Amino acid sequence: MENASGALVGFARLALDPHQQRAATSGFALRPESWHVGYGWETVSLLLDLVFQDLDLHRVWAARAPFNEASAKTLLAAGMTEEGRIRGHVFVRGAWRDSITYGILRDEWQVSSSLPAQVPPVTTPTE
Ligand SMILES: CC(C)(COP(=O)(O)OP(=O)(O)OC[C@H]1O[C@@H](n2cnc3c(N)ncnc32)[C@H](O)[C@@H]1OP(=O)(O)O)[C@@H](O)C(=O)NCCC(=O)NCCS
Fold this sequence. Notes:
The protein has helices at about 40-55, 70-75; strands at about 10-15, 25-30, 60-65, 80-90, 95-105. It is of the alpha+beta class. The protein has one domain: 3-Layer(aba) Sandwich (Aminopeptidase). It has a five-stranded mixed β-sheet, with helices on one face. Bound molecules: coenzyme A (COA).
């Protein structure tokens, strides 16, 4: 929700991983009219506050499409680390697609009042 207008800018979701101790999977998406403002970083940062501060989890991870450069930058800026690739992870528009995964541990998390992390250049395939 945008403070000034009260408009919904997007959503974030969190699902506890049933086969891991104190771990969860996250996801997020903004409405297109809310892109390029910095709400992506803010959304993920608030989600991480919830994960570590309120729920006292140990680890959270997220996955993005290989070509999703905006998501890569957002996840890195929120302090997450690229961890690898899941081959054939999701079935999208008639084909299996890989995902690039990111994770953050409790020890690595800093409360979101800080600024976005400095993000090195992201290289993504053009497919
Ligand atoms: C991913 C998403 C949350 C990013 O949110 P955002 O608030 O627009 O991100 P920001 O404005 O903070 O931009 C982050 C960076 O990505 C870049 N970026 C934004 N949109 C981009 C695009 N379409 N292509 C390439 N880069 C893009 C920005 O320039 C910025 O780079 P910079 O830090 O070098 O300036 C948003 O684009 C979105 O909701 N996309 C659709 C759903 C989605 O992809 N969800 C994530 C699934 S893992």
